[in-house]
Amino acid sequence: MYPTKVVLPDGSSIVVRYHEPRKIIKLPLNLAELSEEEKKIRLEKRKPKQKVKIIDDLEDNYNAKNIALVTTGVRGCHPEPSQHVELNVQATRFEAKRFMEGMPQQRSD
């Protein structure tokens, strides 16, 4: 005989000896003894849950044609003062800021 936990319909549990090795046995709930409201709740729990549909509507309006780099500076990592970046009028502020953050800073020697 094996010690087995039996869960009663009211949620309480007891340990009994069972002829097969089982960890837990859950006794069924008698729906006839429940009120109408409790029956409704129990039946709703049995129905399959609706899957949540996640819509990824993150728009990336980045367009490489909107940002044109005229020159990048050939010597060293810092561009010459005469070299600059032209931004197309259609480029958004976010794109311009993101682009400028990637540019190396000029030295003020």
UniProtKB/TrEMBL annotation:
The keyword Ribonucleoprotein applies. One of its GO terms (molecular function) is structural constituent of ribosome. It comes from the Eukaryota. Pfam families: Mitoc_L55. InterPro entries: Ribosomal_mL55, Ribosomal_mL55_sf. The keyword Glycoprotein does not apply. GO terms for biological process: translation. Keywords: Ribonucleoprotein, Ribosomal protein. Gene3D superfamilies: Mitochondrial ribosomal protein L55. One of its GO terms (cellular component) is mitochondrial large ribosomal subunit. This is 39S ribosomal protein L55, mitochondrial. It comes from Eumeta variegata (Bagworm moth).
